[in-house]
Amino acid sequence: MFDLDSITDSAAQSDALENVVMGLIINAGQARSLAYKALKSAKTGDFVQADELMAQSRLALNEAHLVQTQLIEADQGEGKTKVTLVLVHAQDHLMNAMLARELIVELIELHQKMH
């Protein structure tokens, strides 16, 4: 877990923020990738594997969401967190992963009904 409160100088703060942002990107990307693998399994009728992959996807998404929550809490709505293009990109990854998961859940249910 990242501790943004313990950072004192601006160089260390920038490095820590970069680590947080990378945590967002990596976990969100993993969540999205696992969800698409689950959909692929559902297409072949392997719903047990699809469920397992979606569970793993949920864990990765939870990790990403936890990092996002830390950023929001550290900022306290006061603009304390430096907003960079990379941070915006990370948020975009998270939102895309969340949307992909929601749609893939629906698609897997459709494949189950058709199977």
TrEMBL record:
Binds 1 Mg(2+) ion per trimer. Pfam families: PTS_IIA. The keyword Nucleus does not apply. Signal peptide: none annotated. Mg(2+) binds at D92. The modification Phosphohistidine is found at H89. GO terms for molecular function: metal ion binding; transferase activity. One of its GO terms (biological process) is phosphoenolpyruvate-dependent sugar phosphotransferase system. The keyword Transport applies. GO terms for cellular component: cytoplasm. It is found in: Cytoplasm. Its cofactor is Mg(2+). This is PTS system N,N'-diacetylchitobiose-specific EIIA component. It comes from Yersinia aldovae. The lineage of its organism: Bacteria, Pseudomonadati, Pseudomonadota, Gammaproteobacteria, Enterobacterales.
